[in-house]
Structure formats: structure tokens, C-alpha cells
Amino acid sequence: MPELTNLPNNLDAEKSVLGGLILEPESFTEVLPLISSAEMFYLSLHQEMFSCLMNMYSTGMPIDNVTFAEEIFRTGVFESREDANNYINQLLMLVPSTANIESYAKIVQDKYYLRRLMVFSNQLLEESSQTDSEAIKLLDNAEQKLYDIRRGRDSASLVSIREAVTNYYDHLMKLTSADPGDQAGFSTGFRTVDAIIGGLNKSDLILVAGRPGMGKSSFAVNIATNVALKQKKDVVIFNLEMSVEQITARILSSLSGIRNDKFRSGDLDPQEWVTLCEAADHLSQQTIYLDDTADITAQQMKAKLRRVPNLGLVVIDYLQLMSTGGKPNDNRVQEISQITRSLKIMAKELDVPIILLSQLSRATEGRQGHRPMLSDLRESGSIEQDADIVMLLYREGYYDKECKMPNLAQCIVAKNRHGATAEADLMWCGERTSFADSELERNEDDYPSY
């Protein structure tokens, strides 16, 4: 396959970005979301200059034409201070207006994506022309590469610590700003849980485990609904056990406050029909996607998720019903380990939190108090290792109907890669199959006003 030449570029836009950053270093906050790495510049000289600017910005060095000229001379970008000063003067004279630096950065980004697409297309043609190529593998690889381009990532590239520090510095600045946006973890909707885990953070694999009847599915659906309603993000729920209709009924019951059994019988009074219509109208405006495909694999999930434009959260209910897609294996522990590893990689690639539900073994039934622990994870294998956070649900009232607080539930954070482990008290409402903050923590905002 012939080598590509005359790849798309706009050197004036590249120079305007560099010149604008020298004149107004604070413009990095507008540029970095669009140009995250030096390789997005076409000219190698501009790549080196942008790297130097990023290093100065991340380390707090003052940036102006004098300090920058000294830095690019010191690091060997230019052989003499005179050459460095001359090129910087050209950049400053070329900048039409620093007010338009975001537009210049978009042009640089656009040309970079076009170059990536041309190189990708060339590689795809070369791979497709090989007679021993498998079409399915080529399609999967092509889809992954296109997804990487869309996300502005290159799996084959290395990231220097200089760029990593600069990008993280920008992340911290946004995190502490008045409007942190997507930088902060999404709220679960439960204050006590958020206080322990810091919300749902991107690329985290969050395991929610419990014995049957503890409310795992309801807990996950409550969180998913909250993210869709409050964060305005697309949420995808894969449920390998319940149908779409059953999941929908649970969400509507939780939102409307109508008892779940009435959705099975249809015995609603006139006021409940009004409340249900209002809840249904509100819910239908949210971007929640449901999938009840049985025996689905992690690869099939990822193929579907790549097509969701504003993906914010994925819920999978539940682990033990998933398949690896290969031949049946007698070693189920090994299969589960393969699945959890694939899901952790998927969370990282999609850059979204994934809530994965899992069953606990019967060991809790024979234990005094029945409180779950990490060792109760069924076919554990690498489940505990791959998960960033493990939450175990427990309700004493499930085992002892005469206990003092039969509706009290506990979310036991047994593993937390980002902080300490602790327990959060919640209230369980069986009629609505939903959870809420405990009585002491709850306020009126916890329930919709239908």
C-alpha cells in the first residue's frame, strides 16, 4: 500500500494557537479540551513547542515571549536564542485575536482527526486485502479504532509525564471551580454512599453484591435513574434476568411512589393514574436505554455502548448470567475472571463507571448475623481484584421480621480503591422496590413531587 502524502493540516491555525497561548496562558483552559496532546499538531516543530508550553503551564512557570524563548532554547527546540525569538515574533504577529483561540484549536483538532482517518482507512484497506483476514475480527478492530479516534485517543501512542501532569492539573482546576461539570464523580443519589466512595468515578468497575432478595437490582436502578435525571447523561441498563417491561415497572414504581404490586394487577385508582402519567412523561424525556438480551458477552455490550453518544453510566444485572462467548468451560471461576477483566477494560476504554451486580454464596446463610463479607463473592476468582469498589447489601429485616428496624438496610463498602471502607445506612421500601437515605439523612428532595 503506497505511503500517504499531503495529509490535511492548517499551519496558520497551529501558529495562532501557539501565539495565543504565549499572549494569554490562561487560554489553556479553552485549548486543552480540544488539543490534549502535542501529536495533534502537524508540524514537528509545533509539537515540540506545544510540549514546552504544557510543561511550563503545569509547573506554574510564568509564560511570555521572553520566558518561552529561553525555555525552547534550553530544551534544544532551537539552536540559538535569536532563532527562538524570531519564530516567536512571527507567531505573535500572526495571531488575529486571542479571543478566537478556541476556534483555532478546533481547526487543529479537525485536521488531526482527518489525518487519523486517512491513515486508518489506508491500514484497513491493506488488512482487508490479505486473503487470510477474518471479516468479523477486522470489523471489531475497525470499530474499536474508529471509536478511539472519536474519543481523541490513540491506543498505540505513548503519553509523556509532562502531558499527563498538565492534563491532570487542568482536571484539578476544573474540579475546584464553581462548575466542575463532568470532572467530579456522578452522585449515586444517596448522600451516605457518596460520602464514602466519592460518587461514581469514570473508568471505575463498581461491584454491588448481595444475597437474593436484598435489593441489588433496585439499588442499581435507583442509581441509574438518578444519574439520568440529575446528571443528564445517557444510561444503559443490561438486565440478563428481567424483561424490559419488568425493569420499566420498577423504575416507574420508584419514581411515582405507587406500590409495585399494582403494576402487576393494573388496579390503580384515578389519582394514581394521574401520578403515573406524570412520572411516565418525566421519565420518557430521559435517555435511559434498556437491554434484556440473555447470555450476552462483554464484547457485545461494548459494541452497543460505542454507539451511545452521551454515555454516562452502565449497569449490568448480573455477572453470573453473563457469557464469555466461547465454548462452555468446566472452570466457571476462570470464565468469571475473564468476564470481570473484560468489563474493567471496557470501563477504562469507554471512560465511564460500570455498576456490576453479583450474587453472594450461601455461606452467609449459615453465619450468625448473616452479614456478608468479601469472601462470600460467588466464583470470586479475580472479582475482588478487578473491581475498584465493592459494595455489599445487607438487611437484617430480611432474616428477622421482628427486629427493631425491619426497613433498615446497610450498604457495606468492603473495598474502596480511592479511600477508606465504611458502612452507609439506607432505608428500604419494599412496596416501591427502592432505597432512600436513612431517616436522619433524608429530605424532601429525595422524592419527586408528583
How many helices? The count is 17
Q: Which strand order does the major sheet show?
A: 3-2-4-5-1-6-7-8-9
Shape: elongated
Q: Specify the helix fraction band.
A: 40-55%
Oligomer: single chain
Span between termini: 63 Å
DSSP strand (E) fraction?
A: 5-15%
Number of strands: 9
Structural class: alpha/beta
Q: Report on the biggest sheet.
A: 9 strands, mixed
Low-confidence stretches: 440-450
User: What order do the helices and strands follow?
Assistant: HHHHHHHHHEHEHHHEHEHEHEHEEE
Residue-averaged pLDDT, rounded? 83
Q: Roughly how many Å is the radius of gyration?
A: 26 Å
Task: Tell me what the structure shows.
The C terminus is likely disordered. Strands 3-2-4-5-1-6-7-8-9 form a 9-stranded mixed sheet, with helices on both faces. α1 runs parallel beside α3. The protein is an alpha/beta fold. α15 links the parallel β4 and β5.
Q: What descriptive keywords fit this protein?
A:
single chain; 450 residues; alpha/beta; 9-stranded mixed sheet; 17 helices; 9 strands
